[in-house]
């Protein structure tokens, strides 16, 4: 689920005709002062973070002058709140509050429908309201086809004890709230507190919305970069990883960065799982050996080799790793040779130096292990492959032993090298990349191992040359499964006349920043 900040949620309420406090968003003390000057009245400054209890954390302050607003903003900006560094502050008019209410809409998984929750008591969590004032909580199931009808909304306002004009205003607010949630496919939308001011106006003083992951692509206007429920803004590497998943529906790729700056004294490894339960067991095995995972990564659901390759490249964009550990459930139904080929391509490109233990239990695990053993002999690192017979604990211990054999070796992030494509190469597009073929190299290759390796049989001989035997459109739509078998076969059993290009947008620039930062640190240490 993807969260919106308070200021984003309130903007959607405003667009729907719901009254919100006057104000604006500030990213500097000067901007905060300017907004305060325009408002010309007492204001409230609220840090924009995805945590509750901001007031108790010192994240909500009050000011009466632009100068005071500027001073408070300078204290709040840059403040570290749990997993956040505050970079935005909502500057709003300070409301004169007569009464606080609660209104929210959530998807009830048990009922399989939205439920509107309304209370004449607000300003605290709904759980606390239900605990102290259970009689104040009204729950109303919503028909997703009709939304909330006027008669239903009026009945809720009446049941809550409101009458006259405010009853009608509350009913109109509830109808709009449900419509907003329907329009943006929200998993939850909470307005707390919804306040009645001393001027008898109904105002949404605070608001928070969570959008369903699977609906995010239908709402580009929301500007959500990563459709995941993080407790902090996504890191640059997480944004890059999400773009891989966003454009490729085949299988699952989930990447979560747990450590951004890896301490040199800690034993931190890159983690690559497959399947939620098995991945959790495997991470526990790492922890029992004293390791810290730099990240959580899951490629499951029968992903193509190209997706596993990209996952490995992203994991290996974290400097300071001392090992690479891949382990899933051990009984996966996916063909494990796809994962093996993806790892082979990534490790070869990286010229991997840190040891890796790969547990590929499941269908064709013997072939997957053979692929690892056969094609990773030329890299500096020792890579060991295991199947379902070996437990995650055994594999984690084995990784520890390999690290102890060559202590002090840490992963250095390499630049993303541009592929050298012959000028007159034959090229066709795949779903997420492209394949090039150099006819001059192929002419001297009598065995043509790439043709035998192509299990989908999309490659063949056309007038003596290796070409697509399907249309380019079919290859791009997925008939080329990006299994990577042809490239590996050509590299090790042919003449190197075929290559696969699998771009990862943003990773080249990200790695370059990492490399430049490392250089600066090293230069400073020599002074």
Notes on the protein architecture:
With about 525 residues, the protein is an alpha+beta fold. The protein has four domains: about 1-20 and about 95-230, ATP-grasp fold, B domain (D-amino Acid Aminotransferase, Chain A, domain 1, 2-Layer Sandwich); about 20-95, 2-Layer Sandwich (Dna Ligase, domain 1); about 235-405, Rossmann fold; about 425-500, Alpha-Beta Plaits. The protein is about 35% helix and about 25% strand. The chain has 17 helices and 27 strands. Helix 2 (about 30-40) packs antiparallel against helix 3 (about 65-75) and helix 7 (about 235-245) runs antiparallel to helix 9.
Summarize the structure in short.
This protein has 527 residues and is an alpha+beta fold.
Overview features:
5-stranded parallel β-sheet; Rossmann fold; Dna Ligase, domain 1; 27 strands; 527 residues; 4 domains; single chain; alpha+beta; 7-stranded antiparallel β-sheet; D-amino Acid Aminotransferase, Chain A, domain 1
